[in-house]
C-alpha cells in the first residue's frame, strides 16, 4: 500500500474504499449511475480502439488529470509513470504528436473492460474502478496481449452535463511494455 | 561461428558487419568477454537500497545478480545462483533480509554472498547428510567487486578491471558528478522489452546523429530553434560518451512564448508547460546523455532525470530498465516539473518512443544480411570528441572498445 502522507498516493493511488468491493445491495439510483459510467467507459475505449484519437480528449474535463503508471510505482508511493497530463490541452498535444511527430508502426488496440465498481462522492463526482485488458494488433497481423490493469477514475456525473473524466489513473499491472506505448490506454 | 573465425572488416570501425547482431555464438562469447569481462556494469542506484539489511536484484548481461546493503551499510553484489543446485537465491525484486536463504533447500548466505549454513548438513538421526569431506561451497555464487560514484552502484566480475574512475575517464566522471548533484530520491520506474540485440540499443544511445532526424517532436512543434549548440565527448577508450546540447530558455518562459506563438499559427504546443523547466545545474545544458560501456545510460533531459540499464535476455531480446529520479531536496514544484517532463522519456516519451522501435527495425532487416556491412562515417572515421552532434564518432568509439574486449 502507498505510504500515507505522500501527496501523490493519497490523491491517486486507489479510487475506491476496499470495502466497496464487497457484495452489496444496489438502489435504483445506483443502477442509473452504473449505467452512465459503463456507457462513458464503453465510448471511451471505442474512441481509442477505432482510431478516433481526436475524440479522446473530449472524454475529459478541461482541467483533468490523466496518468498512466504501474501498480508497483503506486505501491511504493512513486509519482512518475509513462504518460502524465494535467489538462485537456495536454491530451490534445499528445494526439497531435502521435499524428504528426512520432514515428511508430501502424497498430490498433482492442480494449476489454470488466464492469466497473463505483462509489458516489461529493459534488456530482463518482469514483469508478474498472479492470481492463488491451490486445495490440500490429499492421503485420501480429496480435499480442499488450497490457492489463485497472482504471481508477473520478467522473463528473451531474444531470446538466455530459459525463467526463475529471481524473483517470491508468494503473498497469506490469512494469514491462513491449517496445513502445504510443496510443493511450 | 565463434570469435575465433570472425574477422572484422579491414576498414575498421567505420564499418560494422551485420553478423554482430545475429550470431548466436557471438552472443554467448559476449557474456564472458564483455559482461563478465573487465567492464563495469551498472547495477542500481544506492537509493534503491535505502536501509541496512536490504537487497535488490539486478543483472550483468544475462547473469542474474543480487545487490545487498548489510547491517553496517556496506554494499555487496554476487551472482543470484545457489552453490548447491543452482537455484535463484532471491526470487523477489527487492526486500529486507539479514541473510539470504535459498528457497530450494534452504542453504543460507550472509549479505556478502558467503555460504553460512547447509540445511541438514549432518543429516537426521544419523542418516543422510553430506560426507565429512564434502565442500558445499565448491561452486559458490560469483562475487562482484563493487564501486559507487555519486549514488550509482557498479559491479565487475573481473579482477583485472581498472578502478571505476579510471575506467570511466575524467570527462565522464565529471559528467556523472554534474547530474548527480544531491542525494537521490527514486520517482518511478518501468521497462521496455525490445526485440533487438543489446548492441543496437547502445548504438542508438551513442548515435547523436539521429536525434533531430528520427525524433521530430521538437521540429514538428517548432521548438528546435531554441535548442542551441552542443557537442560530443568520448572517453579515451572509446567506450563511454557524453552527448549534450544547450537549451536557450530558462524557466520555460521562452518556450511558452514560442509555443504560444507557434500555436496561434497552428503548429505549436497548446500546453507548452509540459516542457517548462528550471536550469537546476546553472550551466544552460538542457540535454546530457551519458553512456558507460557496456550498457549504462545516465540521462538529463531538462529536469527529467533517469538511469537506464539493459538486461540481455537473448540474442534478439533486450530489456531496457528505466529508473526515474529526482533529489531529496526537490520541492513540490520540482517534482511536478519532473512528472510533466517525464512525458519526454520512456516507452511513451515524445522524444524517446522511437528509440524503443528503431533497434528492432534494424534487427528485422539485417537478420538475413549477416555478411553485409553498415557504413559508419558520419563525422569521419575517428573517435574523437567534437563540438557537433552530427557525428557517429561515439558509435565508432563503442565498436573500438567492444572489439578490444572481444579480441577482434
Ligand atoms: S539449490 Fe539452493 S539450496 Fe539447493
Ligand atoms: Fe533517440
Account of the protein in words:
The complex is a heterodimer of chains A (185) and B (408). Chain A has 185 residues and is α+β, with helices and mostly antiparallel strands. Chain A has one domain (28-172): Nuclear Transport Factor 2, Chain: A, CATH 3.10.450.50. Helices cover 25% and strands 35% of the residues of chain A. Chain A is built from four helices and eight strands, in the order H-H-E-H-E-H-E-E-E-E-E-E. Chain A has helices at residues 7-12, 28-49, 71-75, 88-101; strands at residues 60-70, 83-85, 107-113, 117-120, 125-138, 143-156, 164-172, 176-178. In chain A, strands 1, 2, 3, 4, 5, 6 and 7 form a seven-stranded mixed β-sheet that branches. In chain A, a hairpin with a 4-residue loop joins strand 4 (117-120) and strand 5. The relative contact order of chain A is 0.21. By secondary structure, chain B is an alpha+beta fold. Chain B has two domains: 47-146, Rieske Iron-sulfur Protein (3-layer Sandwich), CATH 2.102.10; 169-406, Alpha-Beta Complex (Naphthalene 1,2-dioxygenase Alpha Subunit, Chain A, domain 1). Helix content of chain B is 23%, strand content 28%. Chain B has helices at 24-35, 164-168, 170-179, 198-206, 211-214, 217-220, 253-264, 332-341, 353-366, 393-406, and strands spanning 15-17, 41-45, 54-60, 63-69, 75-79, 94-96, 100-101, 108-109, 115-117, 143-149, 152-156, 184-194, 227-234, 241-247, 285-292, 296-301, 304-314, 317-327, 373-375. In chain B, helix 4 (198-206) crosses helix 9 and helix 4 packs antiparallel against helix 10. The longest helix of chain B has 14 residues, at 353-366. Chain B is globular and about 85 Å long. Chain B starts with 14 loop residues before the first strand and ends with a helix. The model of chain B has no long low-confidence stretch (mean pLDDT 93). Strand 8 of chain A pairs parallel with strand 12 (184-194) of chain B.
Amino acid at each position: 500500500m502507498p505510504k500515507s502522507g505522500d501527496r501523490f498516493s493519497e490523491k491517486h493511488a486507489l479510487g475506491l474504499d476496499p470495502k466497496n468491493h464487497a457484495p452489496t445491495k444496489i438502489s435504483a439510483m445506483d443502477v442509473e449511475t452504473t449505467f452512465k459510467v459503463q456507457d462513458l467507459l464503453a465510448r471511451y475505449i471505442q474512441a481509442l480502439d477505432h482510431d478516433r484519437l481526436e475524440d479522446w480528449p473530449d472524454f475529459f474535463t478541461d482541467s483533468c488529470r490523466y496518468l498512466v503508471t504501474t501498480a508497483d510505482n503506486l505501491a511504493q508511493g512513486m509519482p512518475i509513470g509513462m504518460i502524465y497530463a494535467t489538462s485537456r490541452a495536454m491530451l490534445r498535444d499528445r494526439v497531435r504528436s502521435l499524428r504528426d511527430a512520432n514515428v511508430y508502426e501502424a497498430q490498433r488496440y482492442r480494449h476489454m473492460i470488466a464492469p466497473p465498481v463505483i462509489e458516489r462522492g461529493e459534488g456530482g463526482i463518482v469514483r469508478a474502478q474498472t479492470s481492463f485488458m488491451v490486445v495490440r494488433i500490429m499492421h503485420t497481423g501480429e496480435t499480442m496481449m499488450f497490457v492489463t490493469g485497472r482504471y481508477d477514475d473520478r467522473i463528473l456525473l451531474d444531470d446538466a452535463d455530459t459525463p467526463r473524466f475529471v481524473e483517470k489513473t491508468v494503473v498497469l499491472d506490469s512494469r514491462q511494455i513491449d517496445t513502445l506505448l504510443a496510443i493511450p490506454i | 561461428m565463434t570469435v575465433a573465425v570472425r574477422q572484422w572488416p579491414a576498414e575498421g570501425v567505420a564499418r560494422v558487419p551485420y553478423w554482430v547482431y545475429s550470431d548466436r555464438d557471438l552472443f554467448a562469447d559476449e557474456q564472458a568477454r564483455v559482461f563478465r569481462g573487465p567492464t563495469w556494469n551498472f547495477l542500481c542506484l544506492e537509493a534503491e537500497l535505502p536501509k541496512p539489511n536490504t537487497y535488490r536484484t539486478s543483472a550483468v548481461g544475462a547473469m542474474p545478480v543480487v545487490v545487498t546493503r548489510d547491517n553496517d551499510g556496506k554494499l555487496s553484489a554476487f551472482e543470484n545462483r545457489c552453490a548447491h543446485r543452482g537455484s535463484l537465491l532471491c526470487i523477489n525484486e527487492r526486500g529486507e533480509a539479514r541473510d539470504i536463504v535459498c528457497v530450494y533447500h534452504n542453504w543460507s548466505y550472509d549479505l556478502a554472498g558467503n555460504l553460512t549454513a547447509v540445511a541438514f548438513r549432518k543429516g537426521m538421526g544419523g542418516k543422510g547428510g553430506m560426507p565429512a569431506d564434502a565442500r558445499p561451497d565448491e561452486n559458490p555464487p560469483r562475487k562482484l567487486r563493487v564501486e559507487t560514484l555519486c549514488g550509482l552502484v557498479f559491479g565487475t566480475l573481473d579482477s583485472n578491471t581498472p578502478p571505476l574512475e579510471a575506467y570511466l575517464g575524467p570527462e565522464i566522471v565529471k559528467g556523472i558528478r554534474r547530474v548527480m548533484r544531491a542525494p537521490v530520491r527514486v520517482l518511478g520506474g518501468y521497462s521496455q522489452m525490445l526485440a533487438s540485440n543489446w548492441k543496437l540499443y547502445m548504438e542508438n544511445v551513442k548515435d547523436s546523429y539521429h536525434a533531430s532526424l528520427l525524433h521530430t517532436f521538437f521540429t514538428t512543434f517548432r521548438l528546435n530553434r531554441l535548442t542551441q549548440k552542443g557537442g560530443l565527448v568520448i572517453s579515451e577508450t572509446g567506450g563511454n560518451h557524453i552527448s549534450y546540447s544547450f537549451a536557450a530558455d530558462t524557466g520555460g518562459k521562452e518556450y511558452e512564448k514560442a509555443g504560444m506563438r507557434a500555436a496561434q499559427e497552428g503548429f505549436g504546443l497548446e500546453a507548452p508547460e509540459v516542457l517548462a523547466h528550471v536550469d537546476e545545474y546553472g550551466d544552460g545544458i538542457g540535454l546530457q546523455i551519458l553512456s558507460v560501456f557496456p550498457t549504462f545510460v545516465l540521462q538529463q533531459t531538462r529536469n527529467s532525470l533517469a538511469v537506464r540499464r539493459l538486461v540481455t535476455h537473448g540474442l534478439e531480446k533486450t530489456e531496457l530498465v528505466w529508473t526515474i529520479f529526482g533529489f531529496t531536496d526537490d520541492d513540490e514544484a520540482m517534482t511536478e516539473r519532473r512528472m510533466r517532463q517525464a512525458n519526454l522519456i520512456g516507452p511513451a516519451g515524445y522524444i524517446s518512443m522511437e528509440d524503443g522501435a528503431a533497434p528492432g527495425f534494424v534487427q528485422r532487416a539485417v537478420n538475413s544480411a549477416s555478411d553485409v556491412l553498415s557504413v559508419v562515417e558520419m563525422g569521419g572515421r575517428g573517435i574523437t570528441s567534437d563540438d557537433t552532434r552530427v557525428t557517429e564518432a561515439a558509435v565508432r568509439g563503442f565498436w573500438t572498445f567492444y572489439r578490444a574486449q572481444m579480441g577482434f
